[in-house]
């Protein structure tokens, strides 16, 4: 039991440090964590269809800006030093979760057809 408590504390500490590092790297190019989700996943493709246009446009602009900054080997802080980014803000994840729940319900209700 004591070993589990120690491992939980170590894991929690490492997770916090990892989250800080990821946030720092995402802030360098102005991306959010959900911008890193692959667009080829079926639930994500559907979530993009259901998402409001301003969310899709903002995501597209963030991706283009990140590509441009990467090409120029610059940081977002070089151009906008006072820019406040929230890398863990989510817009599409709730939509993806609803789609996954819907798909799970569909498979449960159709189990008898197999």
Envelope shape = flat
Kindly report how far apart the N and C termini lie: 44 Å
How much of the residues is beta strand, in percent?
under 5%
Overall average pLDDT: 92
Question: In percent, how helical is the residue content?
Answer: 55-70%
| Rg (C-alpha, Å) | 19 Å
What are the low-pLDDT stretches, counting only 5+ consecutive residues below 50? none
Tell me about the biggest sheet?
Answer: none
State the secondary-structure class.
mainly alpha
Order of helices and strands: HHHHH
Total of DSSP H or I helical runs spanning 4+ residues: 5
Instruction: Please tally the β strands and state the result.
Output: 0
Kindly list the characteristics that best describe this protein.
68% helix, 114 residues, 0% strand, mainly alpha
Describe this structure in words.
It contains 5 helices and no strands. The model has no long low-confidence stretch (mean pLDDT 92). With 114 residues, the chain is mostly helical. The N and C termini lie far apart (44 Å).
Short description:
68% of the residues lie in helices and 0% in strands. It has 114 residues and is mostly helical. The relative contact order is 0.14.
Present the secondary structure layout.
Layout: H1 2-29, H2 42-50, H3 53-72, H4 76-79, H5 93-109
Helix pairs in contact: 2-5
């Amino acid at each position: 039991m004591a070993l589990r408590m120690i491992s939980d504390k170590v894991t929690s500490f490492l997770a916090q440090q990892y989250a800080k590092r990821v946030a720092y790297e995402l802030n360098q190019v102005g991306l959010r964590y959900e911008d890193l989700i692959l667009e080829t996943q079926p639930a994500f493709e559907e979530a993009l269809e259901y998402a409001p246009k301003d969310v899709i446009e903002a995501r597209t602009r963030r991706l283009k800006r990140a590509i441009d900054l990467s090409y120029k080997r610059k940081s977002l802080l070089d151009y906008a030093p006072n820019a406040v980014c929230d890398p863990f803000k989510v817009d599409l994840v709730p939509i993806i979760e609803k789609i996954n729940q819907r798909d799970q319900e569909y498979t449960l209700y159709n189990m008898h057809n197999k």
